[in-house]
Structure formats: structure tokens, C-alpha cells
Design a protein that fits this description.
By secondary structure, the protein is α+β, with helices and mostly antiparallel strands. The protein has a single domain, classed as Glutaredoxin. The protein contains eight helices and seven strands. α1 packs across α8 and α4 runs antiparallel to α5.
């Protein structure tokens, strides 16, 4: 997991302003994005910022995946070269997840899905102010229950449970446009965090580090040391 901090302009948001938007570019099959969600929640709690809007934006890690997805074990062998190395990486992310209360069940995951329709669902949920619940449900379905979050029946179930209308191709053009925008902005790994359209950090940093990076951009004093 690459850790990168983008230089932040302390004037991005005026001091004392509550009008802030955090955007997270992510994919629902990225375990670090699930960890990053938990760590972002803790970082905002540390900052005492319940007023900040959080918006999830799409990034397909496997944009060429067929509609039915592909075998996860075969994919990991091709990508990492050996089952042993793949297990080491899983153990590393599982340990990070455990710190944040996530019990990853990689043993249940059989396929890596095509996530385009999952991103459509997230997009549509955003129109109704229900993104957080839908993103959480998708992460849990894939990483804990081992479900194929590219399957229409799974997506329909999650949509219905969260009161989101999900049919046809609604949201498709918006997802494609947002993905193009993210890549044009230099996003090549997830999660990547933006504040008020400015890239701030990438990687699932610990909550304290995220809070320290976010604070000056949000016009706040550091958590430790206070204002001079």
C-alpha cells in the first residue's frame, strides 16, 4: 500500500468554514478502501467534524473484467506470482482491518467482479443522500460475506435495502465521466482523498495521520499542540 501525502494549501477552505467536501476515489473490491473508510470516520471524529459531506467516486481496478468477473485465485496468482506471496498480502491487510474492527473473510471470496454496476449503484445512492450506507453494504457483502457484488441480484438487494432505485443504465455516463476525471487528475491508486476538489492524500493512513493532514486544509489547528 503506497502512502503519499499531497502538499495542501492551508487556504483551500477559509478558517472556521464548515462548507467542506471530502471525496474518496475508491473501488469496492479494494480492501484498503474498506480500511480507509473506517480510518476516515475516526479521523473526522478526532477533528470533531460531523458537518463535512463525504462523497464516494468511482475507480475500477479491473476495468477490463468481463461481466461475470473472473476467478480470484487465478487472478492473484497471475498478479503476485505465488499463492504464498498473495497470502502474505492478505494477512497484512487483514491485520490492518482487525485494528479497525473489520473481519476480512478472504477465504469466502471466489470471484473478482466487474464493479461498474456497483459504482452505478453508489452514484445513484449519492443522488438520494444514501451513499455511505450503500458503500458500507457493498464492502461488507464482498469482504465479509464473500458475495459477488457485480451480480445484478446482489446489487438489487442492496439497493432495495437502502431505498435506492436501481435499474436500467442510470448513472452509467456519470460513472464514466468521474472515472475519466479521476485519471486526468493523476489518480492511479485507491483510496485517494480530495478536499474541495483538491487531492490531499492517497492510501489508508492511520486516523491520526489523516486528521493531521486534513486539519490545516480545513482551517483547523493541529490536534496536538494547538494554535500558535
Amino acid at each position: 500500500m503506497a502512502i503519499q501525502i499531497q502538499p495542501a494549501d492551508s487556504n483551500t477552505v477559509p478558517a472556521g468554514s464548515s462548507a467542506a467536501l471530502i471525496e474518496i476515489v475508491s473501488d469496492v473490491v479494494c480492501p484498503w478502501c474498506f480500511v480507509g473508510k473506517r480510518r476516515l470516520e475516526k479521523a473526522l471524529e478526532l477533528l470533531g467534524r460531523r458537518d463535512i459531506a463525504v462523497h464516494w467516486k468511482p475507480f475500477e481496478l479491473n476495468p477490463d473484467a468481463p461481466p461475470e468477473g473472473f476467478d480470484r485465485q487465478q487472478h492473484r496468482l497471475r498478479k503476485f506470482g505465488s499463492a504464498e506471496y498473495a497470502r502474505q498480502l492478505e494477512n497484512y491487510v487483514a491485520a490492518a482491518g482487525a485494528e479497525e474492527g473489520i473481519l476480512f473473510r478472504f477465504d469466502r471470496i471466489l470471484r473478482i467482479p466487474n464493479t461498474f454496476d456497483a459504482h452505478r449503484l453508489i452514484c445513484l445512492a449519492g443522488r438520494e443522500g444514501r451513499q455511505d450506507a450503500v458503500v458500507e453494504a457493498l464492502f461488507r457483502a464482498y469482504f465479509i460475506d464473500g458475495e459477488n457484488v457485480g451480480a445484478p441480484e446482489i446489487l438489487q438487494r442492496i439497493a432495495a435495502a437502502n431505498g435506492v432505485a436501481f435499474d436500467g443504465v442510470a448513472g452509467a455516463e456519470e460513472v464514466r465521466a468521474q472515472e475519466r476525471q479521476a485519471r486526468a487528475q493523476g489518480v492511479n491508486s485507491v483510496p485517494t482523498f480530495f478536499i474541495n476538489r483538491t487531492p490531499i492524500a492517497s492510501g489508508a493512513q492511520k486516523p491520526q495521520l489523516l486528521a493531521a493532514v486534513f486539519a490545516p486544509v480545513l482551517g483547523q489547528c493541529p490536534i496536538e499542540g494547538g494554535c500558535a
